[in-house]
Request: fold
Amino acid sequence: MKIRVINGPNLNMLGIREPDIYGRQTYSDLADMIKEHADKIGTDVEVLQSNHEGDLVDMIQECYGKIDGIVINPGAYTHTSVAIYDAAKAVSIPMIEVHISDVDKREAFRQTSYIRAACIKTITGHGFNGYIEAIDFLKKYIEENG
Ligand code: DQA
Reply:
């Protein structure tokens, strides 16, 4: 089973950006934590990040025929990008939306998510652990649904 974790803009700034919201751990801490968990559960998980909308579309399209499940935190593009939503619908691979912060309790503009309608589940406000929960959920979902 292959899972791809895709992170959007400014997530490479974790540890520096707004630590009161996103914490003090860095992006590389996040990637290490995910890879360690992947090893523990014996699943092939790759972790990618881009600040560019088109790159995120490419990262989703590349999954077609190769990847069984996607965990995505599109960052600010969550709230604006029809292109990322369209890419998710195009490949039709089980996808989970993750946000480190509780977007639904923040500014009004964060309460719109285009990607949500293409996802089997959304996890918000669980910090880095949200990614681990998403991987575990996705693994079980893929095992049960093929
Ligand atoms: C975020 C929430 C978004 O609103 C924001 O633009 C981000 C990070 C989160 O993980 O909490 O960049 O996706």
